[in-house]
Structure formats: C-alpha cells, structure tokens
Amino acid sequence: MRKKLLIRKYIHYLDWEDFKNGMWNTVVVDENKLLRLAIEFTGDCEKYSSAMLKVIFEWRQTMINSLTNTSINQRAFVGHCAVCFELGIPEYITRMAWKELTERQRIDANKKADYAIKIWRRNYEEENFKLHTHLGKQMLLEWNT
After folding, report:
1. How confident is the model over 72-104, as pLDDT tens digits?
2. Contact predicate 7/68, CB 8 Å
3. Closest to 105 in 3D by CA, of 44, 63, 62, 47
4. Residue 120 contacts by C-beta under 8 Å, 6 or more apart in sequence?
5. CA-CA distance, 109 to 75, in Å (whole number)?
6. pTM
7. Distance (Å, whole) CA 91 – CA 80
8. How far apart are CA 27 and CA 24, in angstroms?
9. Distance (Å, rounded) from C-alpha 145 to C-alpha 37?
C-alpha cells in the first residue's frame, strides 16, 4: 500500500494547545529547578513516552498544525509538547535538558517519539481518508434504462 501524503494544514496559533499552555513562555523564576525536572523527566524513557502518547491526542490542533509540517523536527516537537503537557515546562528549557541526556537516553527518546508520531499519523490518516474507503472499484453507477 502506498503511503498517503499529508496535506499541510494551518491552524491559527491562538488555537494551538501548546501556545495556550505556555510552551513558548519564558520563565523568570526557578529556571534551574525546572531544568532539573525536565532532565529527570526526559531521561525517564517510560514517563516521557507516556506523555508523548497522551499529548498527540490531547493537543489536537497543535498536532495537526505541526505534524502535517514535514519541514520541522517532529521528534523534538513531540518531546517538547510532552514535557509542557506533563510538567508545564516551556520548550526552551526542554531543549536545554536534552543537551544533558546521555546518547542512550536520546536514542531511546527518539524511538519513542517516532512511535508516537507513527500512531498520530495513522490516526490522522484514518480520520481524514476514511470518507473515501467505501468507494470500491466501480467508477460509474449502473442505470436501468
């Protein structure tokens, strides 16, 4: 079966759940505490993976806007969203935390992100392409004359 091409969808940023939940905010107090929390969280593959699987369904508008965009780093994006979703930590702190992980932790996290993206894409395709699955092979209706 051929892979379906995703059509890029644009959602206004005021409708993005990541925007509404502070993913793009700047923290002025306790940045070091949040960094430590982000390092611990992203370093725990199971917790991080669980949050990724939650956020791909909970932040629907954000995912449509960003995961139909094939020019971004989708792995990083899903990871940033997962940390913000679970802990309320902005994206820039998650990027700083990523630098502190071991290579093994990064590899494991990327595999989990790939899996979450695959699940999201499968779901998205089913929702958006299911309308046409009933058509079958017949192109024209048969009329009794």
Report:
1. 999 999 999 999 999 999 999 999 999 999 999
2. yes
3. 44
4. 56, 57, 63, 67
5. 9
6. 0.85
7. 5
8. 10
9. 74
